[in-house]
Amino acid sequence: MPIQANDLWTMRRGKNIERENEPRDAYSRDFARIVHCAAFRRLQGKTQVLGLGDSDFYRTRLTHSMEVAQVSAAIADWLRQWQTGNVYSPIAAVPFTRYRIRGLFDAQLSSAIGLAHDLGHPPYGHGGEAALNYCMRDKGGFEGNGQTLRILALLEKYVRDHGLNPTRRLLLGVLKYPVSYGTACKRLGLDYPQPPSIPWLIKKDDYKPPKCYLDTEQDVVEWILDPLSEEDKRRFIDPPYEEGKLRYYHSLDASIMEIADDICYSVHDLEDAISLKLITRENFWPALEKIGGTDAFLKEIDSDLQKEFPGCDSISTTLQNLFSADPCTRKASIGRLIHLCIIHCRLHYDPNFSSELLALNAHLEEPFSRLQKYLGKIVTTLVIKSPSVQQLEFKGQRIVIELFDALSMDPERFLPETTREIYRNSDATLRDRIICDYVAGMTDDYAAKLYERMFFPHRGSVFERL
Length: 466
What we know:
Layout: H1 5-10, H2 26-35, H3 38-42, H4 61-82, H5 98-102, H6 107-116, H7 125-135, H8 144-155, H9 168-174, H10 181-188, H11 218-224, H12 230-236, E1 241-242, E2 245-246, H13 252-275, H14 281-290, H15 295-308, H16 315-320, H17 327-343, E3 345-349, H18 356-359, E4 360-364, H19 368-384, H20 387-409, H21 411-414, H22 417-424, H23 431-440, H24 444-455
Antiparallel strand pairs: 1-2, 3-4
Helix pairs in contact: 2-6, 4-6, 4-13, 6-9, 6-13, 7-20, 9-13, 13-17, 13-19, 14-19, 20-23, 20-24, 22-23
């Protein structure tokens, strides 16, 4: 019997593990595998925005990923409903039936992609990412999204040589930037500066990697894209270069995940910053106005809201309530901001693609798209770029670089037994990548303890577990 088109997207690269009376569909199994994998658990020990250990309230990569999963599922549910009954709004000249479009959305799949989207992020956030890219600059580089694909398709221990052996469509959903590292560097004209005399004393922006997948996963990407037409493949992996940037194409599922990620970053990380008093009523409003959130802009939102929901609260009231002394009022405001973003997601159609998984993309419509971006810029300006956060990030850069250099200098001596065995059995050209995989998988705390054991004279013991 020939394989049906839908079956091509639920296929797995390795042999599927079949169990008796399996009640779950393919995407539910993807979700379960991610929940139970080691890389997902390690996210609890990786920085989101604020440093770990500051409090048990603030978000880590784990809680952030769980929130992205929930919002992704909500967007998928909304878009499916948006294509039905009274909330249907047609897209002009779309060659797909309404029934066919509705059938594309799967909340469990979207949730699984949301859970998986940050698996590849190294310790110490984007500082750690730049540090590993610096270490691997002549050996294929490093990029967190590319590492996510590598973990799912190869590194995790579920199916030998195939990682978690997820479905093709889940891998397409996490392929946020469908351009290889080498191609991206070439098209962007990246030319990293010469290493400094003190190896760890680097500027993060000098070694910021391009958005990409790693060259080592070229065969995985070719398998992911195999069901697409040759024209769709060519266009998808060849994004236009505009204003010094590559304008990447996304699959439908990746576009949903990206919106959910942006919403959670902008709103949930804002909540953390307000709780920590890094963002206050006094500095929030001037910052919002400076980047475009003027009274006129807020009135534009209110005008749209009143047309949809007569008598509803103004957006200014919602933003004011973020700073309320009543925690229930604050949480209600956070919930409303997220809800407004979800229900203002729409489908856009790109006629240049024939596959509905590429031709249809989720977008957050204006003016809510601008509001989300403004809130994200406030978090970036007042929190992420603050000296206190950047100093901690810089310390993480040093830890990552010096650990990588020490492990690379004598891997047979320093690598743990399991990783050492993988290193010995690897092709010589891939051995630096094995060390990179090991460092990238560390939690912040594990990296700090290993650094102290190796470099601090009075710290570390053979009896201390990392």
